[in-house]
Specification:
Strand content: under 5%
CATH class: Mainly Alpha
CATH topology: Rhopdopsin 7-helix transmembrane proteins
Number of domains: 1
Order of helices and strands: HHHHHHHHHHHH
Distance between the termini: 36 Å
Largest sheet: none
Structural class: mainly alpha
Number of helices: 12
Bound molecules: zinc ion
Length: 349
């Protein structure tokens, strides 16, 4: 019985291969060749990943509950104005779920780690598309509604999401087959320049976020006079934007652990804070778009582009399929060889 609940010993940074090491996190590492069962057990053991997992696993259920509520309560399938909200809420379920799974199973092997985070990146870029779909439907200021930018907005957002997934996956190992194969020692950017890899990843996620928010930023920060949609939802939008910038700041700076390496290994390091503020930001974003939808429904129904499959679920489906293809292409060389060899690995997430 005791052996059933016995948890594996945690390791220090010098006991794990470089690919598993995190900046300024000194202890609390799981075994780099954990079994799937050990990974699941680690949810109940304090490691440096435990709170990373829970801070996205629990919110997955919250957003799933919201999605189910909308599907059941608002006769969503008959009311096409609700479809963008469904797409957005679905993306809000997918990204924390993919993230918590990635953090749970990333210690199974080097290859598993890369593949887990490819899915994490794909889910984040899908969330950016979900945001674009819902902004196009409910958040565009009156002034810009039906304009040329509005009509191009979702196709560009799909393109951006695909580029985002590609750049984020590229930032780990380079291009599949060209710069790495099953023998991952040939991999390109991270071993040569981990800072460049991190920079690529920040750009990969910041760029679609900034593009998606152009109509919102214009509406709440720049627009003056008629047609600015200056309603009571703007306060919720401000909260979401503030939290989004805080999230990006934490991801890019590795604060607070950079100031005191080893002091925040288990609780309070930047990645946990990044998760928590991302979820809080998404929560306010969800409240804001729901409120905009409710307040502006009559005006949108009369004046905005009609909501169809082609500007709501269609782009989401295209993005989902293309993201899966990209992830498969980046994962294929890792799956085609013999088992993962940590010893040859050079650098980290
Ligand atoms: Zn994470």
């Amino acid at each position: 019985m005791l052996s059933l609940i016995k948890v594996p010993q945690v390791l220090t940074i010098n006991q794990v291969p470089k690919v598993f090491q995190e900046d300024c996190i000194i202890s609390g590492y799981r075994q780099p060749r954990s079994s799937a069962v050990d990974c699941i057990r680690s949810l109940f053991q304090l490691t440096n990943e435990t709170l990373n997992i829970w801070t996205h696993f629990l919110p997955t259920w919250y957003f799933l509950w919201k999605l189910v509520t909308v599907v059941l309560m608002q006769t969503a399938w008959q009311d096409s104005l609700t479809w963008p909200l469904l797409v957005f809420l679905f993306s809000c379920c997918i990204y924390p779920l993919a993230s918590s799974c990635a953090h749970t199973f990333s210690s199974m092997s080097t290859r598993a780690r890369h593949i887990c985070f490819f899915f994490d990146y794909g889910a984040l870029s899908f969330y950016s598309l979900g945001s674009a779909v819902v902004y196009s439907a409910y958040v565009f200021p009156d002034k810009w509604t039906n304009g040329y930018f509005h009509q191009c907005y979702i196709p560009i957002a799909v393109f951006n999401a695909i580029i985002s997934t590609t750049v984020a996956c590229y930032s780990r190992l380079g291009f599949p087959f060209l710069q790495y194969n099953h023998d991952v020692t040939r991999r390109f950017p991270e071993c040569q320049s981990p800072k460049f890899s991190k920079f690529l990843r920040v750009i990969a996620f910041a760029y679609p976020y900034l593009f998606d928010n152009i109509p919102l930023f214009y509406r709440v920060f720049l627009c003056a006079g008629e047609g600015c949609t200056d309603n009571e939802t703007n306060m919720l939008h401000y909260k979401h934007v503030a939290l989004a910038f805080l999230t990006g700041f934490l991801f890019a700076t590795h604060l607070p652990e950079r100031l005191a390496p080893g002091s925040f290994d288990y609780i309070g390091h930047s990645h946990q804070l990044f998760h928590v503020f991302a979820i809080l930001g998404t929560h306010f974003q969800m409240q804001a778009v729901e409120q905009d939808m409710a307040i502006r429904r009559p005006w949108l129904t009369a004046n905005s582009l009609p909501i169809t499959f082609a500007n709501s679920m269609g782009p989401a489906l295209v993005c989902l399929v293309l993201n899966c293809i990209i992830i498969a292409l980046f994962s294929l060389p890792l799956l085609s060889g013999p088992g993962g060899n940590h010893g040859k690995e050079q650098k980290k997430t």
